[in-house]
Design brief:
alpha+beta; Gyrase A, domain 2; Alpha-Beta Plaits; 2 domains; five-stranded antiparallel β-sheet; 30% strand; globular; SoxG; Sarcosine oxidase subunit gamma; TrmE/GcvT-like
Length: 193
């Protein structure tokens, strides 16, 4: 049986992203395994099973061994891993939460991650996002489900300086959002960049 090549919907945007200046960089994040977890109560047994304390404060994320745990709702989290295949990750997470009355669903193919870095990326994001992204309010460890342009996204702040973000967008909206971000970044491209 022939092995299928893993591709993503933004391969055609690679060249356009490379043309952006350092003040407003956009790059496609490598493919990661993602699992949506639903769990009614979070206690010490969850940490023992998952190896991470799930964030219980709204709109936050925490680093996990080889990924992140992102709060999506009062009983929902998005876990990611760069070290496991989607099948391995889902199986491990499911084994940890099922005895606690929880569920785990592989959603790895659902979202594409875009990494936005540079001194002007907050300016790019604020053109289409109604969330206050000032670092005093939305610093490292903050996350939010919001609209960016006309696409629903999960936005994570990776720094306290307002210059490093990850945007998770549904695969079907990835091309639209890539075009929107490139358009929003146009004013920061100088003739010599």
């Amino acid at each position: 049986m022939a092995e299928l090549l893993r591709t993503h919907p933004l391969e055609a945007w690679h060249v356009a992203f490379e043309r952006l200046p350092d003040t407003a960089r956009i790059a496609v994040e490598p493919f990661v395994a993602m699992v949506d977890v639903r769990l009614g109560a979070v206690g010490p047994e969850v940490r023992a099973g998952l190896g991470v304390d799930l964030p219980t404060i709204a709109n936050t994320w925490v680093p996990a061994d080889a990924g992140r745990a992102t709060w999506l709702g009062p009983d929902e989290w998005l876990l990611s891993s760069t070290a496991e295949t989607p099948e391995e990750f889902e199986s491990r997470v499911r084994a940890a939460v099922l005895p606690l009355g929880g569920s785990a669903t592989d959603v790895s193919a659902q979202r594409i991650g875009l990494r936005l870095t540079g001194a002007r990326v907050r300016d790019v994001l604020t053109k289409g996002c109604s969330i206050d992204l000032h670092p005093r309010v939305f610093g490292r460890g903050s996350s939010v489900q919001t609209m960016l342009g006309q696409a629903g996204v999960v936005l994570l702040a990776l720094s306290d300086a307002g210059d490093d973000y990850v945007v998770l967008v549904r695969s079907s909206f990835a091309g639209y959002l890539a075009d929107w971000l490139l358009d929003a970044a146009l004013e920061f491209i100088t003739p010599d960049s």
